[in-house]
Amino acid sequence: MTMKTSTRQVDGVTIVDCSGRITLGEGSVILKDTVKDLLSKGQKRILLNLGDVNYIDSSGIGELVSAFTTVRNQGGELKLLNLTKKVHDLLQITKLYTVFDVKDDEKTAVKAFN
Amino acid sequence: MTFPQGKFKLPNSARRWAPVVTASNGLESAQAGGCSDRGTHSPILTMTDQQVSYTLDSTLETVDSAEQAASRMATEAGFDDEDVMRISMAVREAAVNAVLHGNAYDPDKKVSLGFERTGKTLVITIRDQGKGLDLKKLPDPLAPENLLKTSGRGIFLIRSFMDEVQIHPSQTGTEIKLIKNVPGPTAGGKEASQ
Fold it and tell me: Which residues of B touch A35 (CB under 8 A)?
């Protein structure tokens, strides 16, 4: 299943609903382009909803890190929402779980943006 | 315990792929029968009762195919869903290394992918034709200064997911051997319990 994204606005936060696989190639490119597009529009409060992301590889992890640092370097915030167990476990073993701000409730996540 | 031919087709290549299965008394080089449209870039399969191997192009398609083949092999060897995911992901990462870092997408260089079931273990071997991985340059992705790096986690994930990993770099390429112990009661694969 290829990666798909759709965006919506909630209280000044752009929620990106992601589904499919974030892997080397198309999946990583779509994530990168989506974040780049949002930043170009000045949307710097980004919540990545990964609830329907069933697979992510090291390239996808790298792309998440890249998105996180790119948004932060532009004065914005990027948080993660609804990790599946697979993605959660991957972020745990790579010690990235504490780097990202991870939420499991959308309302709480939106309120957490400064 | 046998490897039925149809179950081990690499899905993304299936349309152009007509493997030749060898005799069961050892690995033999197979010719790429039925693949004339791809010339020298045809995936080549060799297979015995306990072993199957592929010769694949240095493409992203190979990465996906290797992952899917690993998932099928691991399932049939009797691993549970979590281990199947770990094994297939480790194979995917090794294939990524072979295609990107080893062969650098060179169309003249091939990736060799082999599976071997011994009853107690599933052994997966991935070999590229690159310059050889420099193990001294492998970063520690858990070091604080590397946590926000966007790459360098592949080998770490492979080692995390497999029971044993052997990496053999040479000037003619890198071979990585991934070993996973088959769970006790179902050792030998699902077929053993049928």
Answer: none
Do B93 and A65 make contact, defined as CB atoms within 8 angstroms?
no
Distance (Å, rounded) from C-alpha B16 to C-alpha B31? 14
Task: List, in order of start, the domains of chain A with CATH numbers.
Answer: 4-108 (3.30.750.24)
Asked if B153's CB is within 8 angstroms of A58's CB, the reply is yes
Q: What is the pLDDT of residues A43-54, one digit of tens each?
A: 999 999 999 999
Q: pTM score, two decimals?
A: 0.82
Whole-angstrom Cα distance, residue B79 to residue A87? Answer: 20
Looking at 3.40.720.10, 3.30.565.10, 3.40.50.11710, 3.40.640.10, the CATH number of the domain B43-193 comes to 3.30.565.10
Cβ contact A59–B149 (<8 Å): no
ipTM above 0.90, yes or no: yes
Report the percentage of chain B scoring pLDDT > 70.
Answer: 70
Tokens of A88: 């959660």
DSSP labels, B73-100: HHHHTT--HHHHHHHHHHHHHHHHIIII
Q: Where are the domains of chain B?
A: 43-193
